[in-house]
Amino acid sequence: MKVLFCTDGSEISRYAIEKALTLIKKDFVIDIVTVMETGFLTTFITFPYEVEVGFPEYKNASEKILEDAANFIESKGFKVGEKIQLNGYPADMIIDYIYANNYSAVILGSHGKKGFKRWLGSVSRKIAHKSPVPIFIAKPVKNHDITEENKEILITVDGSQNSYNAIKKAHEIIDFNNSSVEILSVKAGVEDFPVEIRTDEEWLNKCLAKQDEIMNEILEKTSKILEEHNIKPDKKTLLQGNPAEEILKHTEKNHKDIIIMGSHGREGISHLILGSVSKIILDNVNASVLIIQNKPEQKE
Question: What is the C-alpha separation between 51 and 53, in angstroms, rounded?
Fold first, then answer.
């Protein structure tokens, strides 16, 4: 199995791979890709001849970025596969490359650097939206060391089949050993019910009771799926309100090494935990995120 690590040589990229290597399974082969924005015709086979001749510093810098990343990955006991130099617009080139190859996941940081051109950040959002495979996006967290011990993992679910599928896919990527696993879901607040229900106390109470019943079933089903994969959840949490806001508040109070979520969900009694909510969380959360898409493997 292969994963693709996208790097621009920045400290954020270094953090991303260091963090990912504490969380992913040890049997992955890691390909490394870097992209230089030179303004020349794009290719993902090699640097265009005019770039190599006219701007050798680009190719030299690219080679150093790849070599440094490869040395670090190998020092952590992982096998490095291909080292790929691309030339063009980073998000587009990386997306094209993902579609052209069979990867289990993609690793990148949430910010980049100035220099040849800052690209991780907005690029990570575009890749997360377009990629047909799971995306691990790392965000540096102050006052928390990177370690393989006592990993704090949060799994968000909304009761959709998509969210259950995301759990099964995450099990193929993430090493759950030495971890504490929390399942979290968010139910609708009273203000989210139609006015006809909110103004009828008896009807409202029945709806709230039914909602609690459904949400507890979701948490139990999620727990069962994890246990089928020999993962015992340590905690099941049910919050109420806006999903993105509640997840962000929860992770501010409770440190998480990684949040696992799908990229699509469903509307209904639990709102949307997955989908547009994942974008809000990605932009604002103080933790790394594994986004697992539920879309056909073809470009939009």
Answer: 5
Residue 180 has pLDDT above 60, yes or no: yes
- Calculate the dihedral angle through the C-alpha atoms of 41, 46, 48, 52, rounding to the nearest 10 degrees: 140
Model pLDDT for residues 154-176, shown as the tens digit of each residue = 999 988 888 898 999 999 999 99
Range of the domain at 258: 151-292
Is the pLDDT confidence value at 114 over 50?
Answer: no
Written as six digits, the tokens of 224 are 């069962």
pTM to 2 decimals? 0.83
In a domain, 298, yes or no: no
For residue 273, tell me if it sits in a domain.
Answer: yes
Tell me 248's DSSP state. H
Kindly report each contact of residues 45-50 with a partner whose C-beta sits within 8 Å and lies 24 or more positions away, as own/partner.
Answer: 46/85, 47/85, 47/87, 48/87
Q: In angstroms, rounded to a whole number, what is the distance separating the alpha carbons of residues 150 and 144? A: 12
One domain for residues 123 and 98:
yes
pLDDT for res 258: 94
Same-domain pairing of 77 and 112: yes
DSSP single-letter state for residue 43: B
Nearest C-alpha neighbor of 249 from the set 181, 186, 292: 186
Provide the angle, in degrees to the nearest 10, between the axes of the packed helices 122-130 and 276-284.
150
Mean pLDDT of 206-213: 93
Which residue, 117, 138, 159, sits at the end of a domain?
138
Judgement on whether residues 130 and 155 belong to the same structural domain of the protein:
no
Give the DSSP H/E element, type plus range, for residue 284: helix 276-284
CA distance 13 to 67: 14
Are 156 and 250 contained in the same domain?
yes
Which of 104, 138, 172 delimits the end of a domain?
Answer: 138
Q: What does the mean pLDDT of the chain come to?
A: 83
